[in-house]
């Protein structure tokens, strides 16, 4: 059974038809909402303070931003904040959240592989392994050049990839979590051990299943997310080839005090600095 969300006045309604997860921002936002946005934003601001010392942080850009939870938090802290995503529904949703919260947020619908938007930024970021939506070295190279063009001198680019990367079928773990709040009970299953996996390209079709109920309406949604698993070696190879950025540091989370240590890292975070 496949379910999707459609606006009917202000009431979410789930009906049965094919739709992609990124076309249902409310469902994505509920199912994949991260609890520590404020902590991440503290960490990103601290990265800028430490690694771009002589410059003031004024403008930030979140790429593949989805609902834009991090860019919204920056906006709430009075930074000039922008979110870019290629899904029209996500862009509308992020703009609506900004309006609801009375914060200014520039939202751009564009493909992060190559884009041109107004302004240059001091700090750009791509979070929650959204870099996995770039599939080839060439995609990543083009993306790095596009980010480079939108950064101010010595501007930083923070890439948060997942860790450990998927290398073979044995590394394809599945995760499930429960969400229980007023008017909402859901189970989210992310990945199955039999997901399709291209071992040469490290691209997985991750099965996502969200089931439960929201405000009395049943939800039973299934989709596949196509994600490339970028290892540190693969990312570093393209970053070096671009000659557009230097790697300032490698972290285990979005916190400049957490050095990347292979045995206990949950994430692989690169802080890059624009080269001129
Ligand atoms: C995992 S969600 C990310 C959300 C956000 N980074 C977060 O932390 O919640 C991935 C987002 O990337 C967007 N996306 C996928 N491919 C993209 C592309 N080529 N250009 C821009 N956005 C893209 C999707 O529309 C989706 O909103």
Map the helices and strands.
Blueprint: E1 4-8, E2 11-15, H1 25-31, H2 37-51, E3 59-63, H3 69-76, E4 80-85, H4 88-100, E5 106-109, E6 121-126, H5 137-149, E7 151-162, E8 175-181, E9 184-190, E10 196-198, E11 203-214, E12 217-228, H6 232-242, E13 245-251, E14 267-274
Parallel strand pairs: 3-4, 3-6, 4-5, 6-7
Antiparallel strand pairs: 1-2, 7-14, 8-9, 9-11, 10-11, 11-12, 13-14
Helix pairs in contact: 2-3, 5-6
This protein binds S-adenosylmethionine.
The site of S-adenosylmethionine has 17 residues, from loops.
Question: How would you sum up this structure, described in words?
Answer:
- This protein is α/β, with parallel strands linked by helices.
- It has 2 domains: 4-20 and 169-228, no CATH class; 37-165 and 230-274, Vaccinia Virus protein VP39 (Rossmann fold).
- Helix content is 24%, strand content 36%.
- The protein has helices spanning 25-31, 37-51, 69-76, 88-100, 137-149, 232-242, and strands at 4-8, 11-15, 59-63, 80-85, 106-109, 121-126, 151-162, 175-181, 184-190, 196-198, 203-214, 217-228, 245-251, 267-274.
- Strand 6, helix 5 and strand 7 (151-162) form a beta-alpha-beta unit.
- Helix 2 packs across helix 3 and helix 5 (137-149) crosses helix 6 (232-242).
- The protein starts with a strand and ends with a strand.
- It binds S-adenosylmethionine.
- S-adenosylmethionine is lined by residues 22, 32, 64-66, 69, 85-87, 90, 111-113, 127-128, 130, 133.
